[in-house]
Amino acid sequence: MKALPNILTVARLVLTLMMFVALAAVGGGVPWVSETLTPDSQFALLRFSFWAFVIAAVTDFFDGWLARKFDAVTVWGPILDPIGDKVLVAGAILGLMALGPQPMVVVPAGLILFREFTVSALREVGAGRGIKLPVTLLAKWKTTLQLVGLAGELLISSWAAFDLPADPELRGPVTFAAHAIFAVAAVVTLITGYQYLAQTRKALEA
Question: Which residues of the chain have pLDDT under 50?
């Protein structure tokens, strides 16, 4: 039972890789595979990508909880978990970009990626000097907003694959909600990035 949280984290990494490859294939980015896909195969890959992301996102909420509940905290847990989070978010963003131009997604996506890589670099530099950057409550909300927003964006991109009605009265509000949540996620992501930057600067000056 103690190995279950790490197994979920590794499963999240594997699902993320599969999701990204599937989206890239639909977007024409996988040589020799993309050219052979039929419309039905593309729809199947889009559905798979959406559910792979949802399942991977759910594991993100459970692995930490299970580790605490069963006292299964390991050395690898704190290392793999944030890696899994960032790979999942980055993989979904890059997969969406592979599907084609998405003006309402590209700017928030770029800001999120910029922040994630910057904070990762700050953590690495800080760790070398004995500086720890604990995860804040706002940062946890940031991850939740990112995952919910990306799930919405993937649903919109897979709309036809799920044979959902093209009625603007349904798709319009869903599209607006997904874009809005993703934009809010980008703003919160930048705020938490600034907080980590301020913490690191204060620690280095001290």
Answer: none
